[in-house]
Design a protein that fits this description.
alpha/beta; Aminopeptidase; nine-stranded mixed sheet; two-stranded antiparallel ribbon
Length: 271
């Protein structure tokens, strides 16, 4: 919750491209990676890229760290969460507490666990930029990957995991990658919340099909199996009311624990 509050503070200015606020967010994420003792990728956490938006060239940054695996150091889990949001519009700050300070904060929690418990596979922790502008950070990551694509075993993407009045968290992607469902069913059976499957079947149409709606889409395009953890839209989705005070802390903790359980089980069962 402290990390969510920091990333969703007014001083971050909604973490939109080209603002002082998003650079503050980048500094915060890099500092947290360092405090957690994560290893820099190529001697730096921050990896810049450029993309075109409305006839302008925009500079973005993906923030990458990793923990080497004990058994399969050349096979990688890629855990992602985007840190950008919508900025300031009509004088109102869109703080994006659930979308997606929650996912980035979970990234830190999972990294903390694996610093204390060595994973079998190497794990890349990637805070992605520019998700809100057509997944530009994820595109840059897979187009110039830090490791060969064929060494990426699975992408676990987290985007909006801290608010659901019905107590449901969704795991999207098992329709496309059915081998991932049995381990997740075991996780669902012991989860303190309601872990559901779906939002990934062809033909249900947008916005119900989430297959291409967040950063995992760029991994899916390259046939990298993915699981996307998220909640259904709430009234503050892409609204200035998406503030830290509206987060359900009990649900959020249960979400992070459930996702961590899933990653741990994948680490044991996937080769």
């Amino acid at each position: 919750m402290m990390d969510v509050a920091a990333l969703a503070a007014d001083s971050m200015q909604g973490r939109a491209e080209g603002t002082e606020g998003i650079d503050k967010a980048r500094n915060y994420i890099s500092r947290r990676y360092s405090e957690l003792g994560l290893t820099q990728w190529r001697k730096n956490f921050r990896h810049p890229f450029q993309y075109r938006l409305s006839n302008r060239t925009i500079s973005g940054e993906n923030i990458v760290a990793y923990i080497p695996g004990g058994d399969f150091p050349d096979r990688y889990f890629v855990i992602t969460a985007h840190y950008d949001h919508l900025g300031i519009r009509d004088g109102q700050i869109y703080n994006g507490a659930d979308d997606n300070a929650s996912g980035v904060s979970a990234l830190f929690a999972i990294a903390r666990h694996f610093r204390k418990n060595e994973p079998r596979h190497s794990v890349l922790f990637v805070a992605l930029d520019a998700e809100e502008v057509r997944l530009q950070g994820a595109k840059a990551f897979v187009e110039s990957p830090p490791v060969p694509i064929e060494q990426m075993i699975v992408n676990i993407n987290m985007d909006m995991i801290s608010r659901n009045d019905g107590g449901a968290l969704f795991a999207c992607g098992t329709y496309h990658y059915p081998a991932l469902r049995p381990p997740l069913e075991a996780v669902a059976n012991r989860s303190p919340l309601c872990l559901q499957f779906g939002h990934d079947e062809p033909g249900i149409g947008k916005p119900d099909d989430w297959t291409m709606l967040s950063d995992h889409a760029e991994f899916h395009k390259r046939n990298i199996p993915f699981v996307y953890f998220g909640v259904e839209d709430h009234p503050d989705y892409h609204q200035p009311g998406d503030d830290v005070e509206k987060i359900n802390a009990e649900f959020f903790v249960a979400s992070v624990e459930t996702i961590l359980d899933a990653v741990t089980v994948f680490d044991i069962e996937l080769n």
